[in-house]
Amino acid sequence: MKYLVFSDIHGSFYYAKIMESIIKKEKPNKIILLGDLYYHGPRNPLPVEYNPKEVANLLNQYQDKIIAIKGNCDAEVDQMISLFKIKNHLKLTINNKKVMFTHGHKYNIDNVPSDVDVLVYGHFHTCFIKKTDDKIFINAGSITYPKDNTPHSYLIIDKNILTIKDIEGLAIDQIIL
Ligand SMILES: [Mn+2]
Question: Ligand 1 center to residue 135 CA distance, Å?
Fold first, then answer.
């Protein structure tokens, strides 16, 4: 299985189109969206080509591949315009490791859910891979609004190899489960 993981699009049609070009190049089996799909949020400036409706139209074309997770900026109306379900969390088992996908505003490196080996999230707009004694934390970053000099980023999960890449396709960090 190959997954592409994107987070925090925040309504930028410009970066949604870049995301689509990455999808066409990488040909994943599934696309995991870690939340904050359409609304820019009151803490952010308006993103490049802010157009939530066009972002929804683009995402809806991939409805069969998308697994979406709810972010703190995602409202009830966002589910209404989406042809895919927006859920609270996703749990997968990869190479016998329990991997949980969540937005990150509730569960993150400072509030770790029990019974999880790997926690994958977004929300903070900074990509990283951090390993502790018994857990792994991965932030996919934000495709639209990276912070703290991190790149516009996403995560590729190809079998048990997890790679953070920038939008040029350059590998930033990698971990093998
Ligand atoms: Mn968020």
Answer: 22
Q: What is the CATH number of the domain that holds 17?
A: 3.60.21.10
Residue 6 Cα, ligand 1 centroid: separation in angstroms? 12
Q: How confident is the model at residue 31 (pLDDT cuts 50, 70, 90)?
A: very high
| Distance from the alpha carbon of residue 25 to the mean position of ligand 1, in angstroms | 27
Which tokens belong to 86? 């927006």
Mean pLDDT on 43-51:
95
Task: Work out the pLDDT band at 22, boundaries 50, 70, 90.
Answer: very high
- Estimate to the nearest angstrom the gap between the alpha carbon of 51 and the chain centroid: 19
Tell me whether residue 83 is in a domain. Answer: yes
Ligand 1 geometric centre to CA of 89 (Å): 14
Query: Does the predicted TM-score (pTM) go above 0.90?
Result: yes
H helical segments located in 39-177? 52-60, 76-80
Helix 13-26 vs helix 52-60: angle between axes, to the nearest 10 degrees? 20
Q: How many folded domains does the chain comprise? A: 1
Q: How far is the CA of 84 from the centre of ligand 1 (A)?
A: 19
Give 35 Cα–ligand 1 centroid separation in angstroms: 7
